Amino acid sequence: MGRRQVLIDTALRLFYEHGIHAIGINQVLQESGVAKQTLYNHFESKDSLVEAAVEHRDKVFFQWLETRMNSRPAGREALMEMFDAVHDWFNNRVPTLHRFYGCFFINTCGEYSDPEHPVHKRCAAHKTRVFELLKRHALEICTSETEAEELANALFLLKEGAIVKAHVEGDLDAALKAKAVASRMISPH
Amino acid sequence: MGRRQVLIDTALRLFYEHGIHAIGINQVLQESGVAKQTLYNHFESKDSLVEAAVEHRDKVFFQWLETRMNSRPAGREALMEMFDAVHDWFNNRVPTLHRFYGCFFINTCGEYSDPEHPVHKRCAAHKTRVFELLKRHALEICTSETEAEELANALFLLKEGAIVKAHVEGDLDAALKAKAVASRMISPH
DNA sequence: TTAATTCTAGACAGATCTGTCTAATTTGGT
DNA sequence: ACCAAATTAGACAGATCTGTCTAGAATTAA
Prior knowledge:
homodimer, mainly alpha, 74% helix, DNA-binding
């Protein structure tokens, strides 16, 4: 694996576990076994490495979620599969996502509150992308665009809420509880 | 106001806006106009100040929310009022909560991922406390303990999801959308 | 083989971090 | 007015932060 990718992987792992401002460049270098100059050959600053880490997480996470949902019939089943997917995530059964420390994008926005900051913007873009994925499947089982939007929104909120509950309170069944609520919202229709 | 409280207020404001590890003790001292020795007379370390800030936020936030909910009849109306309350919060109409930068407890857990850390524990305790508040009102309109638990859980997830959506995506209507979902969950019953 | 590129190791600068210490000043109770 | 406690200002230590620089080693391509 190229040096650039090694740096991104290591940085993401450390940032995700401890937060971004708690991790210094030197620690990333030491754990990745890369020289300092190499880092600054590939990235012009720490912030630039942070951006790359967020972008990478977006790619990995979205691909994983989309693949999981596509493994089931589009529409209701795919939407329900989402909750099973994040349930596996919460319980550390998805190695590619690392050990669960909440949502990297939510955590990162807690450290970059300015909505105009490039890092914050990338986090927002990720969430919007996931929302669009839900909406696409919601359209399969809804009779109008508005209705699909509302359903996708409800499921999105439940999912985000479950992430928070799982991380902050350590509730490992949060995803299943969210799924139960979601199930009641879709089936009687 | 006592020096101790000045320090807590200033620290909370800065921590909430920028994250905890991004703020140094010296900045807290400068903005609060307090000497360094005074800080270390009241707190044995920065972490101890962080704990105090989290505890204070818990007190202020919970009291605010409980008061808002108690301004309406217990049960369904109080639960609906919660969404109006956080809607005001998202739109910066609650001065005592500061400008909205997401949930301080969620953000803080992003920087203190170890669930055994005192700071993380306090954040978890806050969320649990809010959940119990919801459950108390849910019991007013449910026929069983289990049903109340499930309702409180659903509303809790919607609320947390709305906080995330409002902060990360800048969706200022997130609370109203969550309220709409919640409303559909309660009224037909 | 040679030439160009990439990487390494680490010194270094300058800023900032937490926390300690001192000594003078202010405050509050009696 | 007096004494004790609290606060101030700031120097200081030692660690750590980001980012630059240099010089040599490794890698890659022609």
